[in-house]
Amino acid sequence: MRGQTKAFSVDFDMKELANSMMFKISNDVVYVSSMELSCLRNNDNGGRMPLARVYSKEWWTYVCMGPSDPHPNWHLGMRGTQHRAVMWRVWKEGGTGFLYWGANCYERATLPSAEVCFRRGLPPGDGVLFYPGEVYSTSHEPVASVRLERILSGLQDFEYLKLYASRYGREEGVALLERAGVYMGPERYTVEHMPIDIMRGEIFNAFRC
User: Fold this and answer.
1) How deeply is 150 buried, as exposed, middle or buried, from its count of CB atoms within 10 A (0-12, 13-18, 19+)?
2) Cα gap 126→108, rounded to integer Å
3) Rounded to an integer, what distance in angstroms lies between the CA atom of residue 35 and that of residue 40?
4) Over the chain (209 residues), what is each successive 10-residue block's mean pLDDT?
5) Tell me, what's the pLDDT at 50?
6) What is the pTM for the complete model shown?
7) Neighbouring residues of 39: CB distance < 8 A, sequence distance ≥ 6
8) Strand 143-144 vs strand 183-185: parallel, antiparallel, or unpaired?
9) Measuring CA to CA, how many Å separate 108 from each of 65, 74, 104, 115?
């Protein structure tokens, strides 16, 4: 978040309580919406963008237990491009932020070196993006998961697209994302890495001139 927060209050829209939240931070309103609801409506933003723009300056999305396969999320066992596609979706839908609920939420253990177990009742990997060094390395430093590295790649893709749109406009950025075959929608995105390389290469060449 930009700047310092002097006051904080939370206002819930009761009709959509299960899937969205409205946060008032100082004089700005941040609208936080689940990607799960968009998937249920089978489109990119489920009609949420206009509502977000009417009531807030910021529109953030999040993933947690849902959405599930084949939609983008960060669960264990999903494809690499499926993890990366979370940020492609955020960019295409015009999100200004992203919220994730936890990065080291394992089952409680009695010893730091105990075997890591995912929380019962959650999809494998949900809320876990790195692992304790006491278990998985010779140091005590946290060990990044492969999924966390894919998230980084997705964030870099986001910045590439943002840079491209700053010169050529957002519509051209969306057109490139789709033309390269990277991301068309929550059920239509590449499972191969070649289209991503093509998209990045085109952006690189556009700014090399």
Assistant:
1) buried
2) 15
3) 9
4) 35 38 49 57 47 62 90 95 97 90 86 82 94 84 94 97 96 97 96 97 92
5) 44
6) 0.79
7) 46, 66, 67, 71, 186
8) unpaired
9) 19, 21, 11, 10
SS3 letters across the chain: CCCCCCCEEEECCHHHCCCEEEEEECCEEEEEEEHHHHHHCCCCCCCHHHHHHHHCCEEEEECCCCCCCCCCCCCCCCCHHHHHHHHHHHHHHCCCEEECCCCECECCCCCCCCCCCECCCCCCCCCECEECHHHHCCCCCCEECHHHHHHHHHHHHHHHHHHHHHHHCHHHHHHHHHHCCCEEECCEECCCCHHHHHHHHHHHHHHHC
80, burial (CB in 10 Å: exposed 0-12, middle 13-18, buried 19+): middle
**Distance of alpha carbon 67 from alpha carbon 155, whole angstroms:** 19
Question: Where does residue 29 rank: exposed (0-12), middle (13-18), buried (19+ CB within 10 A)?
Answer: middle
Name which of 80, 75, 94 is nearest 194 in CA terms. Answer: 80
Q: How far apart are CA 30 and CA 50, in angstroms?
A: 14
The pLDDT score that the predictor gives to residue 1 is: 34
> Residue type at 167?
R
Q: Six-digit token pair at 10? A: 């939370």
Cα–Cα distance, 16 to 32 (Å, whole number): 11
**At CB < 8 A and 24+ separation, what contacts does 15-22 make?**
20/48, 22/55, 22/56
